[in-house]
Amino acid sequence: MPETVSTPEVAHVIGHHHPGGKAGWRAELIEIAEAVLLALVAIATAWGGYETGRWDGRQAELYGLSNKYRAAENRAATLAGQQRIYDTSTFGFWLQAKGQGHDAAAKLFERRFRPEYRPAFEAWMRIDGLHNPKAPPGPLWMPQYHNAPAARAAAFDRRASSTFERGTNARKTADKYLRVTVLFATVLFLTALAQKFRIQGVRFGLLGVSLVLLVVGLSLIGTYPRA
Predict the structure, then answer these.
(1) Which of 30, 74, 83, 122 is the 20 to 30 A CA-CA neighbour of 113?
(2) Mean residue pLDDT across the chain
(3) Where are the alpha helices (DSSP H) in 100-147?
């Protein structure tokens, strides 16, 4: 004859083996929270890595462009120096011929002046630079003197410096994204560590810390520029 099972015994078995109840609900809530947290961290980590790579590429591009500008500056500065030497030499020969009374030779050297140099020479002559003790030493020191390669060299210098600075800022931004990515890796570690504990209080605590770090990381990313 089969044995009968009393109602209290059935209730005892169900209470120990049924996954429902308050404890089961909390366990499911923790698992859902862990899954959501892991998904958010995975997306944020991927975004941080993407931005780091983009800003690294931007830095390399800007540094290369800065080097290009520096090379152009050096070429322009070399040409400007050569032209200044030519201007100084022809003026020196003109001055020597003028001082010796060789007007024909002086006219010859004067015709050899560069077009950019001529306005400064004419302005210097108007103030009687040969005899005026207050006059500048030569046309090269006159405000009318202009050297186009020197101006280009100065412009390339400014562009090179500005571009290099932008490249440095790009490097700093990439470092910021990299640090946030490390922060997200810490969140991943804490979340994985929380799954090793069966004590719900410990898991809740680790998840709380992970959530705080995630919010901090997302807040930082929100303030960083986009590539």
Answers:
(1) 74
(2) 87
(3) 103-111, 118-126
